[in-house]
Amino acid sequence: MSSIDRRHLLAALAAGGATAVGATSARALPEDLNLAGLKKETDVACLYHCDFGDDRRYSDMLRNINNHLSVYNFDPFNTKIVIVAHSVGIKYHLKTLVETPWEKHPPMDPELATRMAALAKYGVEVYLCKITFERQKLDFALAKDEPYIKLVPSGVATVAALQSKGFAYLKVG
Hints:
Residues about 1-25 have low confidence and may be disordered. The chain is α/β, with parallel strands linked by helices. The chain has a six-stranded parallel beta sheet with strand order 1-5-4-3-2-6, sandwiched between helices. It has five helices and six strands. It has helices spanning about 5-15, 55-70, 110-120, 130-135, 155-165, and strands at about 30, 45-50, 80-85, 125-130, 150, 170.
């Protein structure tokens, strides 16, 4: 009998469209992270800072992340990429924009969500700012039900915390 290592298990799960926590598990709210628990676990780690609401710029960011991962053969054991979103940048990770400050923005291209979900299969995570939700009086349940979406106390504090732990900083635009 052959043994299965973690890398092959994760690759098989990603290819099958599942996640390590289950393909159909329902979530009420995204996981809540604390700054002290954030760690750099790969040699290469990078945060992409998203505090903008321009769809073209967001599309460019997703393309850059894809290119970034391609250099490391899309191997989540070689590189870790996190998107830290606050302010209007959270809109890309909400179920709806109805009754939000961005309700009158042009409808988003659904391809953006498809591309983000594809990147998540390679370990890309999105950290949404709780302060943005609170100041905009938004329910945390508006966040999409995706395992790659997490809540952090503050977007800007998370950017600084990740940098202090060795994550490189990139901002598109």
